[in-house]
């Protein structure tokens, strides 16, 4: 008897029958019915209609039935929240059950029901279970906190579960410790700056103790957590390494790789002359090799990681070349990775072996693999100079096979070899020329043309060869056309007498008959060069080319360092920093290798040198770009003492992080450069916004508020008048003007969209680039009806501040992309920082005093507000409307001092002292903040609020 | 952590899904199907596939893809290891892990998955513990359950769950106490044209079947422990003792488990137990090719080489093969071009050979790839690395158990290039 019977259905009303069975009196029948329901559910059938009937079966002492009902509940509670409430009582009761298995099951299941109403009831049972006497219940409850956090993060924080969870790290049971670490790590992922996993030598010691006794999965969590710790000195580092090393012999490959990560990271701190350092290096090789005998999927991930490890520390695997030799029935993804590592490990000592292997691979069946093998031979030639000659002769052998794609691939790499070792192997050109006719791929054709052009003086019939390509000039791909143009010009400069006709022909083809702007431009440039100053032309076109670099394929050292800290993760598989692709982890912190202890070593290895510099700062994890930002987000970090301007985001990282961002940057950048008028319009230098604040005309709304302010009523926060953000001429007829406002605690982006084009616009959508405060649309852009020509529509877009964070310049700059059925448009605008002042920004007096003293005087900045004719009370009232709260007022010698506090959405406090002297229209504001970067923007807000 | 799991069969249908957090639409698998379509062979589907909002990590076993969906940064190896564990568990429970077996036991499968993962965190993956929580289906139990109305879900908290030895349940009782160990070594090797070894390594495992009453504490020592410099242990092995004395000391799980796996790399000399003499040639302009293969034993320490199976993927241009085996049978599949020869046992006095001709497409040029020959074999009663168990002792219990050690050498990926 099997479960497949549950899938057989009768024609008339399956649901109806099940309903009857579920309500049957017989226990056995009931259970069978629930099983049928579950079976339907697994194959994706909708059985949610049976909800009340299934829930009725929950009150049972039969554990299997209970579990089955729970399974059902978890799946459907979301769609039937009101019904799910019915189950709450049973859950709460089960949490008191004498059997720990039932207690754990109840709390576990409750956490899986993602319905707000249920989570409210969950808090009390969960609190009890976190302190349960049975460790099995405690460890289940630990995970439940993570679940609850996923549903309602605020609730978890309010209820103090995070602290309880932190306490569990010191639990006596290793399994509980492991689960607490896992739960905390998961929670920390969505709170990059909260100091949840506060690692100090004591906790580290506890984790290391638990490491030996918990399950393999727990070991992974603990090791990954350990990897985030930065030891104080090399001795601590060594002792951790010693205690982690046994994990290298674990049967679970994920444990092994996580241990490798910890060791690779902490090794950085060990002095290289230490005996232990050498021992550790030796210990790392065998487990890595062992990973390669596992299942192919594991091998793949292992190989991607080994690729990083051999770049960082080639000495670990330098004797293990042979394990990377390809077996012919390896899956293709394993083959390609092995090939890559073989090249990285290639050295003078083993090059003969490697070449023999590569040559073998070049005769295999799989075309992709063969191509890569041929390319690998070329890369070896470039990497190991002594082997170049051997490589070239191997390539020539391969060309003799006449296998079409092998020949083409070989010619492409020979071109690279020529560029690395000029004037050395040109004797082979004759052989290459023999194969001219068989080349049908653009890359190979272009490579061949480059060779002919470059060495035209040595090829007797170079003109004939190039001429033969010219016949089908228009059918060639751009790559070949460009190369042909350059090749013929080179030929002309070398042999001007015979080739005048040819060069004229190609120039006219390129400039007159081609639609390709690149080709045309290059053609014109050559033409003018040749016609005005042939000597200069020679200098330009035949200039000595820089040698191609040895390892163009190496990962950039800073990225490599970061990736080493992420061994075993997705980042290491993709060779990209996590921030580039992990969704939902906002402001992922960039990890860096710790610097080595011996300062003298930074000399012989430049990349550890840079790491050592960074490691002087105290925080465990150092954000790579903009320490400023780190500070903005986390007041606990000590304020930067030596922060220069934050390094510009590297183009590559940006592009990878966010396609939109890349597009925005380049587009805006282009506009700014090309069109200064435009830049003033929306390129947004810092001066633009204040001028619009100062505009004497203000909207009727603001006037109303002004009146209100006069009577002393609390009023809405200040909102600047709308300005044009995106002019119609820039956006194919779509004009956007807008402003920001804060209404009952919600930031609104208010826009007027005007269609100035001839056609109807639909399908509007909006997206923001990362910005300083994580502003992001809280919902889609609500433009429901199509926008007909000449029509305008007012849209109000609520924003939240949980988006990805990146420091912008200026701080309140916001880059926006708007899409409609026509295209995507980019613009940037600035929001008044007062939008971010939150309603609960009133500080306690005592706290204010303490904080004021606590913030160093360096962080204080003073500003003047001119021409303001309000009394101090009116000013205070007005400011309060924008969530700038007056805490105290003091009058000294006719001068009113207002002490005020502001809290930003990201938790930064700004303290202010406003001095108003009767009869003097100039106010003085002193701002103190742990993140002084915001002061300037805050001051602008003060000015704007007070003057409107 | 792991969000969801989809099981996909060879024809690209999702036949089971399970979600541990919110439900992820099965349309996410479309990205997987795309990759599946692109791959020429089923095993060439890349194990990690990015989609706009999720990552798909998959393993292929028993012609079923196990596709896990993850949303945040999770160690992929952790996911892959877990998926393999799921497959092992299914196999353990249902004997085979096929689509039919999973569908037949869908409720047990669901119960198991729920028990193995909580919110994406592994909960119980040790087969010993799972079996206490959910009893494997047997015909007898199903019948008994139907009659008595009892269930196959355990009512008690699994004892091993929290003890210091989570892998062993308490209260184990046997009338016959026995402990058997199998030392199985696989040789992975690449032999080049001329017969010299390019790479050779040994992947060894010691699989145990321990059925002992109570809480036995075992020690296993080797004659030549120095061979084992690269080992992975079952969590039960006390690492410190191994480091210090090179003795395996452990409280074993109940039943079948893998005590350790080890790796003897090419630096240590690995003996190659068979040799192949081959002559596979094609002549330009002729539509015939010669095929000549002879196998022989070497370095087998007098043990017989058995269950020999030779297979080779012949070039695409080969239409048919007309061969004559001196022993065993051969087949040639004209569609896949796969030649396989079931040799059986190698008799050192009369070496097995396979000779004859291959016919090529008329007028086609000579194939440019050289076929690789894959060889499988078994040698009983020998571990090719020379590893030998010295003695097995038991402490902590009074009775005397039966003990047994078996050795075997097999070919892993053993390839000869021509």
UniProtKB/TrEMBL annotation, chain A:
Q: Name one GO biological process term.
A: vesicle-mediated transport
Q: Which InterPro entries match?
A: AP_beta, AP_complex_bsu_1_2_4, ARM-like, ARM-type_fold, Armadillo, B-adaptin_app_sub_C, Clathrin/coatomer_adapt-like_N, Clathrin_a/b/g-adaptin_app_Ig
Domain Beta-adaptin appendage C-terminal subdomain residues, every copy: 837-947
Tell me a GO cellular component. cytoplasmic vesicle
What are the record keywords, sorted? Acetylation, Membrane, Protein transport, Transport
**Which coarse location class describes where this protein primarily resides?**
membrane
Places the protein is found: Endomembrane system
**Stretches the record annotates as Disordered:** 581-625
Family matches, as Pfam families: Adaptin_N, Alpha_adaptinC2, B2-adapt-app_C
Q: Where is the Clathrin adaptor alpha/beta/gamma-adaptin appendage Ig-like subdomain domain?
A: 718-828
Q: What family does this chain come from, according to its entry?
A: Belongs to the adaptor complexes large subunit family.
**Name of this chain's protein:** AP complex subunit beta
What is the name of the gene encoding this protein? ap1b1
UniProtKB/TrEMBL annotation, chain B:
Q: Does the keyword Membrane apply?
A: yes
* Residues of the MHD domain: 176-417
A Gene Ontology term for the protein's cellular component? clathrin adaptor complex
Recorded superkingdom: Eukaryota
> What does the UniProt entry say about where the protein is found?
Cytoplasmic vesicle membrane; Golgi apparatus
Q: Which GO terms describe its biological process?
A: intracellular protein transport; vesicle-mediated transport
State if Transport is listed as a keyword.
yes
Q: Where's it mainly located? A: membrane
Q: Which UniProt keywords apply?
A: Cytoplasmic vesicle, Golgi apparatus, Membrane, Protein transport, Transport
Q: How does it sit in the membrane?
A: Peripheral membrane protein
Q: Which family does it belong to?
A: Belongs to the adaptor complexes medium subunit family.
List the protein's name: AP-3 complex subunit mu-2
User: What organism is this sequence from?
Assistant: Larimichthys crocea
């Amino acid at each position: 008897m099997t479960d497949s019977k549950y899938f057989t259905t009768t024609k008339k009303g399956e649901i109806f029958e099940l309903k009857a069975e579920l309500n049957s009196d017989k226990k056995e029948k009931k259970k069978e019915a629930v099983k049928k329901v579950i079976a339907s559910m697994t194959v994706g059938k909708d059985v949610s209609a049976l909800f009340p009937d299934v829930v009725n079966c929950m009150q049972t002492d039969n554990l299997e039935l209970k579990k089955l009902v729970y399974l059902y509940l978890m799946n459907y509670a979301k769609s039937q929240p009101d019904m799910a409430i019915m189950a709450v009582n049973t859950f709460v009761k089960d949490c008191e059950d004498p059997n720990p298995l039932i207690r754990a099951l109840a709390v576990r299941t409750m956490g899986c029901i993602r319905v707000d109403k249920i989570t409210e009831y969950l808090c009390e049972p969960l609190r009890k279970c976190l302190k349960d006497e049975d460790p099995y219940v405690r460890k289940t409850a630990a995970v439940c906190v993570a679940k609850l956090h996923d549903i309602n993060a605020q609730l978890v924080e309010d209820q103090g579960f995070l602290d309880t969870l932190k306490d569990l790290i010191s639990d006596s049971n290793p399994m509980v410790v492991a689960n607490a670490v896992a739960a905390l790590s998961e929670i920390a992922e969505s709170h990059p700056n909260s100091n949840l996993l506060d690692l100090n030598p004591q906790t580290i010691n506890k984790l290391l103790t638990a490491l030996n006794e918990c399950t393999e999965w727990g070991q992974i969590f603990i090791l990954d957590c350990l990897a985030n710790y930065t030891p104080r000195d090399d001795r601590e580092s060594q002792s951790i390494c010693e205690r982690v090393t046994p994990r290298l012999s674990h049967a679970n490959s994920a444990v092994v790789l996580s241990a490798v990560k910890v060791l690779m990271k902490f090794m950085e701190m060990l002095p290289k002359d230490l005996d232990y350092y050498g021992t550790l290096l030796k210990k790392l090789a065998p487990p890595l090799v062992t990973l390669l005998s596992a299942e192919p999927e594991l091998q793949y991930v292992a190989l991607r990681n080994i690729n990083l490890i051999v770049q960082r520390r080639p000495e670990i695997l330098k004797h293990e070349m042979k394990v990377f030799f390809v077996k012919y029935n390896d899956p293709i993804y394993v083959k390609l990775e092995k090939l890559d590592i073989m090249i990285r490990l290639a050295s003078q000592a083993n090059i003969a072996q490697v070449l023999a292997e590569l040559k073998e691979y070049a005769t295999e069946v799989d075309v992709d693999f063969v191509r890569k093998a041929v390319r690998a031979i070329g890369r070896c030639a470039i990497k190991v100079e002594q082997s170049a000659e051997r490589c070239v002769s191997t390539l020539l052998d391969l060309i003799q096979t006449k296998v079409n794609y092998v020949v083409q691939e070989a010619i492409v790499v020979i071109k690279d070899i020529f560029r690395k070792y000029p004037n050395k192997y040109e004797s082979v050109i004759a052989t290459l020329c023999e194969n001219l006719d068989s080349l049908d791929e653009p890359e190979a054709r272009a490579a061949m043309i480059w060779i002919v052009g470059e060495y035209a003086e040595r090829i007797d019939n170079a003109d004939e060869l190039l001429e033969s390509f010219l016949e089908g000039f228009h059918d060639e791909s751009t790559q070949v056309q460009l190369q042909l143009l350059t090749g013929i010009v080179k030929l002309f400069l070398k042999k001007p007498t015979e080739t005048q006709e040819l060069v004229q022909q190609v120039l006219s083809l390129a400039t007159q008959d081609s639609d390709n702007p690149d080709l045309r431009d290059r053609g014109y440039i050559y033409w003018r060069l040749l016609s005005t100053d042939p000597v200069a032309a020679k200098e330009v076109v035949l200039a000595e080319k820089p040698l191609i670099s040895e390892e163009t394929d190496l990962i950039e050292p800073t990225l490599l360092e970061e990736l080493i800290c992420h061994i075993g993760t997705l980042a290491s598989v993709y060779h990209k920093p996590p921030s580039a692709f992990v969704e939902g982890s906002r402001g992922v912190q960039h990890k860096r290798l710790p610097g080595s202890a011996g300062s003298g070593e930074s000399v012989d290895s430049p990349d550890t040198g840079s790491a050592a510099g960074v490691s002087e700062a105290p925080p465990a994890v150092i954000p790579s770009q903009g320490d400023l930002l780190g500070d903005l987000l986390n007041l606990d970090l000590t304020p930067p003492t030596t922060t220069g301007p934050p390094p510009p985001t590297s183009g590559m990282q940006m592009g990878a992080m966010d396609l939109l961002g890349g597009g925005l940057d380049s587009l805006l950048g282009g506009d700014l450069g090309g069109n200064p008028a435009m830049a003033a319009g929306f390129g947004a230098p810092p001066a633009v916004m204040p001028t619009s604040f100062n505009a004497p005309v203000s909207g009727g709304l603001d006037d109303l508020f002004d009146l209100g302010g006069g009577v002393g009523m609390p009023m809405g926060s200040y909102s600047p008048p709308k300005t044009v953000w995106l002019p119609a001429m820039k956006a194919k007829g779509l004009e956007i003007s807008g402003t920001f406002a804060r209404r009952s605690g919600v930031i609104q982006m208010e826009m007027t969209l005007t269609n100035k084009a001839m056609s109807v616009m639909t399908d509007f959508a909006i997206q923001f680039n990362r910005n300083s405060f994580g502003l992001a649309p809280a919902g889609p852009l609500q433009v429901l009806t199509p926008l007909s020509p000449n029509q305008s529509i007012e849209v109000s877009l609520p924003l939240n501040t949980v988006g990805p964070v990146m420091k912008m310049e200026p701080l309140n700059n916001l880059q926006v992309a708007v899409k409609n059925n026509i295209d995507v448009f980019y613009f940037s605008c600035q929001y008044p920082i007062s939008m971010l002042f939150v309603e609960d920004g009133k500080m306690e007096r005592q706290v204010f005093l303490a904080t004021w003293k606590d913030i160093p005087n360096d962080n204080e900045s003073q500003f003047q507000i001119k021409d303001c004719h309000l009394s101090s009370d009116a000013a205070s009232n007005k400011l309060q409307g924008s969530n700038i709260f007056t805490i105290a007022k003091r009058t000294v010698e006719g001068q009113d001092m207002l002490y005020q506090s502001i809290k930003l959405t990201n938790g930064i406090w700004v303290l202010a002292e406003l001095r108003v002297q009767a009869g003097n229209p100039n106010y003085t504001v002193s701002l103190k903040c742990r993140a002084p970067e915001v002061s300037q923007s805050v001051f602008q807000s003060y000015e704007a609020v007070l003057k409107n | 952590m792991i969000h969801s799991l989809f099981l996909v069969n060879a024809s690209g249908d999702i036949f089971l899904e399970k979600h541990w957090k919110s439900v992820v639409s099965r349309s996410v698998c479309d990205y997987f199907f795309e990759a599946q379509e692109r791959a020429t062979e089923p095993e060439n589907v890349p194990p990690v596939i990015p989609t706009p909002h999720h990552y798909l990590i998959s393993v292929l076993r028993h012609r079923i893809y196990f596709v896990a969906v993850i949303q945040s940064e999770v160690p992929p190896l952790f996911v892959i290891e877990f998926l393999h564990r799921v497959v092992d568990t299914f196999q353990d429970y249902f004997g085979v892990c096929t689509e039919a077996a999973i569908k037949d036991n869908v409720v047990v499968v669901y119960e198991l998955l729920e028990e193995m993962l909580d919110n994406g965190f592994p909960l119980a993956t040790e087969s010993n513990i799972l079996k206490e929580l959910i009893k494997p289906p047997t015909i007898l139990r199903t019948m008994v359950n139907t009659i008595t109305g009892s269930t196959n879900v355990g009512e008690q908290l699994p004892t091993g769950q929290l003890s210091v030895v989570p892998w062993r349940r308490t209260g184990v009782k046997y009338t016959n106490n026995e402990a058997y160990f199998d030392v199985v070594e696989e040789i992975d090797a690449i032999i080049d044209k001329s017969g010299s070894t390019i790479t050779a390594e040994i992947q060894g495992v010691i699989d145990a079947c321990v059925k002992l009453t109570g809480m036995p504490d075992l020690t296993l020592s080797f004659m030549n422990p120095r061979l084992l410099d690269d080992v992975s242990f079952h969590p039960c092995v006390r690492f410190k003792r191994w480091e210090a004395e090179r003795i395996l000391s452990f409280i074993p799980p109940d039943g079948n488990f893998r005590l350790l796996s080890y790796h003897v790399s090419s630096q240590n000399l690995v003996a190659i137990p068979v040799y192949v003499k081959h002559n596979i040639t094609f002549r330009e302009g002729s539509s015939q090719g010669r095929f000549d293969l002879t196998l022989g034993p070497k370095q087998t320490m007098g043990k017989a080489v058995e269950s020999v199976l030779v297979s080779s993927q012949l070039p695409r241009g080969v239409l048919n093969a007309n061969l004559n085996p001196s022993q065993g049978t051969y087949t040639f599949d004209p569609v896949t071009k796969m030649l396989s020869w079931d040799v059986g046992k190698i008799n050192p006095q009369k070496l097995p050979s396979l000779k004859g001709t291959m016919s090529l497409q008329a007028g086609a040029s000579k194939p440019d790839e050289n076929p690789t020959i894959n060889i499988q074999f078994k040698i009983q009663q020998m571990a090719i690395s020379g590893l030998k168990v010295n003695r097995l002792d038991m402490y902590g219990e009074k009775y005397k158990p039966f003990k047994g050690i078996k050795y075997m050498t097999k070919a892993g990926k053993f390839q000869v290039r021509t």
